[in-house]
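WARN retry 2 of 3 for item q-0093 after timeout on previous attempt; input resubmitted unchanged.
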Amino acid sequence: MITVVFPYISDFAEGDELKYAIRSIQTHLKTKFRICVIGDLPSYLDSNEIIHIPVNRFSEGLFKKWFDQLNKLQTAIESKSVSEQFIWMYDDTYLIDDVTYNDLLKPKAEFPYFSDNAKNAGPLWQHVHTQTCEKLKHYTIQVFNYETHLPRVYDKSLLLYLIEKFSLHKNPYAIATLYYNYYFPDTYPDDVKNYRAKITEPASMYDIITATDKKKFLNHKNKCFNDSMKGYLENTFPEPSIY
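OK item q-0093 returned
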């Protein structure tokens, strides 16, 4: 049974996105799984059904976002409650069609590497990704951007080796991009746009339905969790999860 791991910080949530993300997993993930939340646990979730690992978040430093994610990944690696291969998931990402374990193993990347979203993401993001790309040029001819914000499968031993080899506790690298390019340098990934609907601005119900047509995943920015998005998620996942 594989563990689906959600890193979660309640202060950053716009609402109950995590509730719908878990419902989407229960509805569409076609493999046996357990849910683990690392960080905060919202009151609407059942602590008896979920593996909860409390972790204090990094709140200081220029690259606190990257080091906080790394700390939660390290926590997952060290926990005996988390399977050796685990699915790293996000509270603002939803499965909107059936997804198998093999679907998640299939590499998906952003094309081109620095898309318009990447260019507009801010200087810290650009610094981290540029640094990651430069480091990876020593190991692969072509570097792909795997920062898709989709669920992905990590192997504990491979991830731990990467953390130690690249001193990730000191250097803020884009972890998914580092992991998949380093371990799968000869793989040409699929274009994530074939699988993901990405909502970057507040949208109407019609726009959300149109964007998600024939996609397997939905992801949205925090500011997009408006009434239309809530309505879409409630209509799509009306049944409460066991969690």
